[in-house]
Write a structure and sequence with these properties.
five-stranded antiparallel beta sheet; 7 helices; globular
Length: 273
Amino acid sequence: MDNHLNPGAFRGSRAPASETSHLQDGVARLPEGVAGHQKDAIDHREGVAGHWEGVARGKEGNARGMEGVASEKEGRMAPERDGSLLCYELKVLCPEALVQQLGSEQLYAAEAFGKDAFSVSRPGMLLARFYAREEMENTLLRWLNRVAGQQESFPVLFNNYGSMPACPLYIRVQDPGPFRMLAENLRVIDAWLKGNDCPAITLFHHPRLPLMDRLDEQKAMEILLEFSGRCFRAEMELEELILVSRVAGEERERMVSRLRLLPRGLRTGGRDE
């Protein structure tokens, strides 16, 4: 249905003089009740205005409260401002076969859209991030090795592509269930971190395998549409995690430790269930 008005339908149309005269007489003889009604309407509008003014004051107070919450969150989310804390990340490294498969996809994108249309991510998945002092590492490693030793290794299936603001193009993990279990087990160090004046741990229950970490704005939609029609499938066995650290403001990472998971089937006497 066309909702646009047609100005031509009204052009040149004018009421007869007699009808205009009657209309003017009618307007001139407006009943006093209408004037009273208009006064009531004005009072009502003033009341509504007062109501919305109160609502506005409430919103202003809420805004101040949210500003305080935002500042508090910013302080928690930017602990690297404390020079005594290192950033630690628990990651999954990709096997060589998977790295080569990702490289083939990135090469395809470079040939189709140019090497400057995107930047390449490091092959790997982030499971957890936390901040601690370097002298806490020995105790930290004991906790993490205990968590890893309670989790059996498991297969990971990668299936096709996804996109989100923080990760413009990534490979999907088909079943994040084992990662959620692993992330929940890592909560055991959260209270210990907080007890040592460190921020809470950040857990990634549904990790993603990044393919690109930046897309050219002018070519982003074209790239995403192209990869939405492409298929990707790969598998790996997750047998270990790595712990890396970096100094505030630096990108260079230091390998801290490799954390081995329990061999698959060991808990069930060698039988996979």
